Amino acid sequence: MRYVCHISGGAGSAVCWLRALDRYGECEAVFANTNSEDPDLYRFLDDLEKYTGRQIVRLNNDGQDIWACFRKHSAFTNGSGCLASWRLKQLALKAFQQEHYPDAENTTILIGMGPDEEDRQIRIAKKVAPYHVDFPLCWEPRLWNCDVQDFLKRRGFTLPSLYDKGYPHNNCGGACIMAGIAQWCGVLKDYPERFAHAEAEEQQMLKIIAERGRVEWTILKDRRGGEHKTYSLKQLREDVEAKRRLPDDNWRTKSCSCMFTWGDD
Fold this sequence. Notes:
The chain is an alpha/beta fold. Helices cover 44% and strands 10% of the residues.
C-alpha cells in the first residue's frame, strides 16, 4: 500500500501527515496552491519540511490565484462550493493522483479531518473512490482541534499566524469566499489591504457577470429584514464605516470543547 497525504497548510493536515509518517514510515505530502494564501502558510510548510526531512510536493496551478479562476469562468461557485477550491485544489490533486498513483486499489489518501467531521468524511470517501481514504486524526487517541494544535506546539512548531487571530482555517489568507459577513468584518479589521483587494476584484467580477448576461451574484448575502439580497464587499465596508453594521467577533475560535485530553506520547 502507498500513502499520500493532502496538505492544506492548516494544522489538521499537518498533524495528519506527521501521524502517518510515524505509523508507516513513508507517506508523500501534496499541497495544491491557490496562490492566494497568507505568506505565513508557506513558512509553515517550510517548517514541516525541515522537521520531517521530506519535501512537500507543491502544485502551483501555473501561478493562477482564486480571482483569476473566478474571472476565467465568470463564476464564484461550481453549484456546490467554491469554484477556485474545486479547480485549484480538488482537480489539481486528482490529476496528480491519477498521474503518480494510478494503482488506486493500492493507494490510500490521508485527509486531515477530525472526529467531529464524520459527514464530511463520508462525502470525501465517495469523491476519492476507488482510492482508499483514511483520517489519521481519528486514530486513537483521537484528536480534536485544540489537541491538534497542542500536538504541533509540543514538537516546537509555530502555528500559522491566522490561528493567533482566531481564524478557524488557514486558507486564502482568511479572505475565503465561503466565510460569512462576521469573518469578512474581521478581514476588514485585521487585513484591510486584503479586504481592499477582494473588494476591487469582486467589483470587477460584477462587471464581467453583467456583461455576460448572468444573474448578479455577490460573495455575501444580506438577510436583514427576512430577505436574501446581494451584498457586495463594498457595501459591507461602507456599512461598517458608517456604523450601520457593527462587527461581531464571536466567530473567532479562541477555544474549543474537546472530549478527550491526552498526555505526551
